[in-house]
Amino acid sequence: MKNQSAAQQRSPFAKAMLAFVGIALFLGFMALGTWQVQRRAWKLDLIERVDQRVHAAPVAAPNSAQWPHINAASYEYLPVTAQGIWLDKQTVLSKALTEAGAGFWVMTPLQQPDGSQILVNRGFTPEKMRAEWLKQIAEAGPSGETVTVIGLMRMSEPGGGFLRKNDGSTGQWFSRDVTAMTESMGLKHPAPYFIDQGVPAGNPAYTPPDANADVLRPGMTVIQFSNSHLVYALTWYGLAAMVVGAAWLVRRHHRAVAPG
């Protein structure tokens, strides 16, 4: 009959495909919701860990004997202090996008008395200063002045940025990849972490930015993190529920129009 319903006209293959799509969507939405729940737990742990650490008094940076045991869960964002001599000639600039705009992180190794080196993020500099920094790096000579660095301990950021890979041969850095950077600098005994120079207000070692903050601004580590994972999780679970509801309506309609 020409007035047969769409439900009656569907072939078994079409019905099977519709069921397959529905199941796939349901499982996909449920998986995404569960992933967001897991991300929320990870984010809450990160927020708690950072809040506990960033305002603590700085301790000595881990020495080479401790390096094999370093991990993000135990050490990241820990306020530390280190002494040494700047290896200004080995400075590199890493792309940065901050609350102050686009620019670069100024990454300089600190030569320690025991012969090891720690890579230090000395702060943020705007894009307009790139040429000036490259000139300073090229003209830098040996430094004999011992300095004390106070900052937050950070883990390496391997690889690069979104769709952009680090390239040490051309000086293109899109992430603070400690291994790649120190290899390009020719360092013999580098630490597996880096230090973000500067600590947040409220830390006993906090010092306000100096008059050269527009040229080099330390203390810009992000220590406040958004946490919208619960909203995302509820959204994905809601979509999964909508798939179930749609399947029920389709099934109900099919039964209503089915003959006999």
From TrEMBL:
Family matches, as Pfam families: SURF1 (PF02104)
Q: What PROSITE patterns does its record include?
A: SURF1
Which subcellular locations apply to this protein? Cell membrane; Membrane
Q: Give membrane topology per the record.
A: Multi-pass membrane protein
The UniProt keyword set, sorted, is: Cell membrane, Membrane, Transmembrane, Transmembrane helix
Signal peptide from the UniProt entry:
none
**Transmembrane region(s):** 230-250
Q: Which family does it belong to?
A: Belongs to the SURF1 family.
- What name goes with this protein? SURF1-like protein
Q: Which organism is it from?
A: Comamonas resistens
